[in-house]
Amino acid sequence: MKVISFFTAKGGTGKTTFNVLLASYIKYHLGKRVMVLDFDYPEHNLSYMRRRDLRYLEREGIHYSEEDFFPVESIDKMSAEELEDISKSFRDLSDVDYLILDFPGSFAADDPVTQLMADDYRK
Ligand SMILES: Nc1ncnc2c1ncn2[C@@H]1O[C@H](COP(=O)(O)OP(=O)(O)OP(=O)(O)O)[C@@H](O)[C@H]1O
Ligand SMILES: [Mg+2]
């Protein structure tokens, strides 16, 4: 499994848009299994868009199955320890070929994602 993520120090630069396009390319064009983790707490734009799309299909009576979409998991704010556990569990995922992490535009110094990245950097 490959993990892909894009990070910029500035918000609103198109990360989520690009991640959706990339996930779609991997699933629909390459036919590979892909999952997106939405770390953009508390906005969760990607999870919101997915719920909106499903509501639309249901309202219009359009039949769909789960396999029609790549899974999007919404990750809420959590402690560094919880995040470490989550990242370990996703590291061992065998049922996806690509894992895409959708990060927020910025992190506070005490944000667990920042701490984990700093830990990785120090290693
Ligand atoms: N290549 C592009 N050209 C023009 N507009 C774009 C492009 N990519 C994204 N946008 C627009 O820019 C805005 C921000 O995009 P997006 O939400 O993907 O950025 P982001 O980096 O995920 O933001 P955040 O840091 O808030 O998560 C959206 O309105 C989107 O439609
Ligand atoms: Mg975004």
Write a structural description.
The protein has 123 residues and is α/β, with parallel strands linked by helices. It has helices spanning 15-29, 45-59, 80-91, 112-122, and strands at residues 2-5, 34-38, 72-74, 98-102. The chain has a 4-stranded parallel beta sheet with strand order 1-4-2-3, with helices on one face. The longest helix has 15 residues, at 15-29. The chain binds adenosine-5'-triphosphate and magnesium ion. Magnesium ion (MG) binds next to helix 1.
List its traits:
4 helices; binds magnesium ion; four-stranded parallel beta sheet; Rossmann fold; binds adenosine-5'-triphosphate; 123 residues
Categorize the overall geometry.
globular
Distance between the termini: 22 Å
Number of helices: 4
Question: What is the count of distinct domains?
Answer: 1
Q: What is the percent of helical residues?
A: 40-55%
The residue ranges in which pLDDT falls below 50 over 5 or more consecutive positions are: none
What gyration radius follows from the Cα positions, in whole Å? 15 Å
What's the CATH architecture? 3-Layer(aba) Sandwich
Order of adjacent strands in the largest pleated sheet: 1-4-2-3
What is the ordering of alpha helices and beta strands? EHEHEHEH
Bound small molecules, which ones?
Answer: adenosine-5'-triphosphate, magnesium ion
Structural class: alpha/beta
